[in-house]
Amino acid sequence: MPSGAELFAQSMVQLGIRDLFTLVGDHLNEALLAVSQAGIRIVDMRHESGVTHCADAWARIHRRPAVSLVTGGPGHTNSLTGIATANLTGSPLIAVSGSPSLALSGRQVFQVIDQVSMTQPAVKWSAGATGAAEIPYLMGRAYNEANSGRKGAVHLTIPVNVFAAQTESALPMPAPLAGAEAAPAVGQVETALGMLFAAKRPIVVAGSGVWWGEAEAELAQFLRKTKLPLFTVTLARGVVADTRANVFGYADPAINKAALAAFQEADVVLVLGKRLDYRLALGGPRLFGKNAKVIQVDLHAPELGAARSIDLGICADVKATLRAMTKLAGEKTWQKLGDWTRKLSRDRRVYQATLDATATKPQRPMHPAALFSELRKALPADTLYSWDGGDFVHWGRAMIPATQCGGWLRLGPMGTIGSALPNCIALQLANPGKPVVMITGDGSLGFYLAELETLVRYGLPVVIIVGNDGGWGLERELQMELTGGKTVACELKHTRYDLIMQGFGGGGETVEKASEVAAALKRAFASGKPYLLNAIVKGARSPFTEWQIAGKKK
After folding, report:
1. ∠ CA 205-206-208, rounded to 5°
2. 455 or 545, which is more confident?
3. 35, 317, 508, 550: which sits with the fewest CB atoms below 10 Å from its CB?
4. Which domains occur in the chain, in start order?
5. Residue 430: pLDDT band by 50, 70, 90 thresholds?
6. Whole-model pTM?
7. CA-CA distance, 420 to 50, in Å (whole number)?
8. Is the bond into 365 cis (omega within 30 degrees of 0)?
9. From CA 56, how far away is CA 66, in angstroms rounded?
10. Residue 386: CB partners within 8 Å, gap ≥ 6?
11. What pLDDT was estimated at residue 153?
């Protein structure tokens, strides 16, 4: 008779899930042994939140559900930040937590909490197993809940005695459902194309829905046909490279002032798979011109017009919509948008020149812009990035182009700083042999510092760039704006993070001058092991923080 642990492992194999992210605990021993015997790769980490972040990143990279497994009690509570991050990002994480035996239910038992209820507000679906026979059904249900409609995180609590119990009557597992493409209405496609065809200053904004819908090829084909200008954001960064013609970089006005100018002047905006959320100023007048017509395409109907009134909402799969629009667009002779695209190109060049001018000013410590200017020149063209949050990092997001499809991992709507480290573990595991770079600040690095050991243990040659300005840079700038120069709880020591990496068994060095960056980066990649560049930089207000401050003043 199979045990619950064996049924759990068999369910993973049947669902096509061959990797498990975990941190060992008393409630998990039977499950981990069964998973190992089933030939599933186990990636064991140092903090449960890091476990769920890493599994979330794995799901984003592969565009299918991933499984995390943590112990109950504090292991479960530690995991909640990663679970919430995955859910708000729309990532299909199946977060499984062990728990004490149900046989002891109702008594003052060690590490007993109501894990299912605790998780429910942060996930799409949550359940607890009461018997081994339920596990295949619950795993299949969890997979389909996470992967259907707008994807998101789900949770299962499986008690230790359920893992250990045996059964002859396991419930059947629901088969993984293939996502059906929801085709757009023909009339809506015709209306959208008519609006874009008549526009003098159209733009396209591509968001995560393009990535999840595997629509990168369809988007590129649509752009070749129409020559419409493109801006990308979230997981769509790099689906069409920033270096391609008529691609103008970040659709984030806080990072790309050229995008802000384009959005304010655009007469028709096609939004593909992107919420009109905080990142797009809720579609309000701070970003969009008052006469701009907005076409929004999203698989999740409640998103259409949720933040602002729109002129056309298409509830459909982005991939199917782009196919239909490209087919219809082929029947038209599209007007040339030379004046408009030349203006967009000019605005982008002017903005980049402003950033580059900042980089060339001699400063000590070096300005973040100077560091990123050198990185932009020295990093391999096929570099994959794991970006953290913070003022230092935002300089890099403004200056480095996205060129690799699936190679631009960010924090998501939770803004979970620190998660770039577990994210980069997944990014390198998924892309052996490719250059992976993590960009972080000295504050953010501290959250999951022990995961440096995970990088070393698995031999993952990630290059970590730490902007060490001795503080919580973004909050420091915001406080200084409020007080005229004073800060509270914002200052940190200038720690030698490169020595910490060396202590874990990796490599590292401190970089103090922009002229040292290229050679240090060459040594980092040549080392063949995790390598940390501890870059001493000046605390400097980023374009992102300037946008934040300007918004507070309005």
Report:
1. 140
2. 455
3. 550
4. 4-164 (3.40.50.970), 186-343 (3.40.50.1220), 361-553 (3.40.50.970)
5. very high
6. 0.96
7. 10
8. yes
9. 7
10. 57, 409, 420, 421, 423, 424, 427, 436, 437, 438, 439, 462
11. 98
